[in-house]
Amino acid sequence: MNLVQDQDLSLPSLALSIRETLENKGFILIPQFAKDIEDLDELKEVYLDLCQLVGVPISHDTSDSIIWDIKMNEKSRSFVKTYSEHSHEAEMHTDSQYSEYPEDFFGLLTIKKANCGGGLSYVLSLDDILEEFQSNTKNRRYEEILRNTNYPFIVPNVFKKDNRKEREYNFGPILRDNEIRFRVDTFEKAILLNPELCTTDQVEAFKALKKIILNSEKTQKFYLEDRDLIFINNKTMLHGRSAFEDPERHLLRIRMNRH
Length: 259
Prior knowledge:
By secondary structure, the protein is α+β, with helices and mostly antiparallel strands.
């Protein structure tokens, strides 16, 4: 586990440590970052200040929301839901794989963890995925397909740019140099609705990669406690979480690109 050991670092020093660890290790956990979670507005200001030192915060949606609540939304009637809205398992994925340019980093600040035993966090590095994937010579052809062809990802309703459209897609390769774009449901829903968007070879390559990702023994698992803050490199790490039942579980996410 990559931890910030000194909790008394200034924000600039802390941001420097975060950036270096994101580039070299892929993620960093800052236990008990929030000293006082009673004043949520003040906490958001400090969180945003730190993120502005780590990178360039970017909006989540057409409303230019920088800080996004990760909380169960049982009232959502979206045809394609984002993981932020529901409480069942979020399989290993990268954020914004349905975007033209997925963000470089993001932070998750835990306001209230799930007190039901669920909500276990997962992380898995691209290096570990490729090491296992490339150990099978049959996957060499698949890797070429994953790197050199565009895959469709359906955009969750809450992130669509044009609500007049029934469905919206973005396209991109699954793998690039030191970069992965991956999520099971947004890809599989896309080809379920429009099978012609992918070739048989593309689907086979995706399934081979999916099998390794969802069954890797290298996946790290841990609970985020109240007031914990984690930053993740969205290009070199996959993340996910187990299902939970506590409707009060609440995290705050900020997405960033490099300076």
